[in-house]
Amino acid sequence: MNTQSLTIDAHEPGTPPGDLAIWFFIFAELLAFGVFFGSYAFARAHHVELFNQSQQLLNRASGAINALVLITSSYFVVRAVAAIKQGLSRQCANWLGAAIALGGVFIVIKLFEFHAKFSAGISLSTNTFYMFYLSLTIFHFMHVILGMVILAFVMAKARSGGYSIEHHTGVETGASYWHMVDLVWVILFPLVYVIR
Amino acid sequence: MQYKSQAVAKPYFIAAIGLFVGQILFGLIMGLQYVVGDFLFPAIPFNVARMVHTNLLIVWLLFGFMGAAYYMIPEESESELFSPKLALTMFWIFLVAGALTIVGYLTVPYAALAKMTFNDLWPTMGREFLEQPLITKLGIVVVALAFLFNISMTILKGRKTSISLVLLLGLWGLAVFFLFSFYNPSNLVLDKYFWWWTVHLWVEGVWELILGSLLAFVLIKVTGVDREIIEKWLYMIIAMTLITGIIGTGHHYYWIGTPEYWQWFGSVFSALEPIPFFMMTVFAFNMVNRRRREHPNKAATLWALGTGVMAFLGAGVWGFLHTLAPVNFFTHGTQITAAHGHMAFYGAYVMVVLTIISYAMPMLRGRAANSAKAQVMEMWAFWIMTVSIVFITLFLTAAGILQVWLQRVSTTPMGFMATQDQVALFYWLREITGVMFLVGLVVYIASFFVAGETKEAA
Question: For the whole model, what pTM was predicted?
């Protein structure tokens, strides 16, 4: 095990890491999720009983495990960025590979959860709670897949030595998007699974 | 004009403006029929006037988009058009087919027209905005395919820029989504789905890509701002458009027999639809403020800025006004919709076509910009038409609010026709501002014939 430092050095002051464009995209994504979360809160306030009842039936354990999985994967992504800042392309690619693998774990756990719900005959039209539960989690699920695709591209480029100490905006761009995916779950999980 | 073949854009632009005049005349006819019900009856019944008004709008905007593409693509690809001859042939086919269709609408009863054009063999007629006979629809497909082939080949053999690729994506989308108009399922809910997949995915999807790239092209030309910066904005706008616009289709599904969750999906996503329009406004002003040259064509810059502002107001704000399901429950199909339709179409698509015409026409006529005198006149036309449409929108909004109240909210709701009598004052005011709009349009056309000192093309 090498001893790479975990300090993330400052960028040009005033500019976020990665490509500026991804930040606009992240902003738009967070806005869309934000409006959805707001609508959830609004709908919940009108159907407290129904929401409480339906929330009891969710699999909180798998939601919590998935939160840990994503947070861990985000840590791996941080290690990947730290690695490329020291010019360690191979380590960078490996850390990204580990993050993608955890993304896969998330997907598998989620598929089991969806399978259980769909076999129970639950659909978007079951009730307002399940409409939100399914659309929010599926919407997020698709973002996890997109995030994995982005990380896979970055990993492939890192493996072929496409990044260096000086030029590694791409790694930061992918990392920023992945953290967004993680962040949304960190809000979504307590909001939909836990808070009653 | 840098490439000889760009000249094919000129007849397209001229035809567009000619059909625009027709659209406004029929708008005035039906505007009057709102208050004088038997005006021109039985020669031009209301439903026919309405069909001609909306169909002409679509057709002249298509002429405008095609002209814009024929002008922009050679310059963007740094290559002559693949086949100028094909472009001119298609122009005449499209113009004649369009004219024959309008003549058909005006001279034969719609049902008879349907019979004459084999609608019973393959029914495609009778749906709002897509009323064209089967033959015309097939003609549109042929023209669109030839057009897409022509510009795609040009792009393939030349330089590929983000602007031309976004434009190409928008135009291909336009053609592909038109294909939904050929399928009329007998189930009414399915029928509405397919109808919206043309209508909505056009105006709140792929047309916005065309709008974005036209605006970006003109802004690069008149401001001299780095292409890289403009392209980044364009990508952002396109991403937001697609994220919000595609699922935003749900705001048409509220009351047509679809599952209830569409009320949430439609409300949430379409509530975000104003964002790309707002970005376009910020984009246009930002680029003009950071301009690195003083382009002599001030009128084109004015149109570009106007597009940003009016598209945001008409499509963004007036769209948001009635997009949330609980609001739409009351406003659905009232004059609120008409108000939104007028300002959105003018602000987004009419203005962007006039922007590119304003920029390209002087070039096509061999000068960088028109004389100061002609430009001042064009700017007068800009203000008269724009202020008129603002007032048309405000009067229709007032009519809509009153209509919703009298017909749907009040404890003693009135019938549809009784309500119409109550809002007649606003219809009169709308008709008067409609005449003002026509005056603006006449001034606009006159500005093309004003001479004066001009600068040579750069």
Answer: 0.91
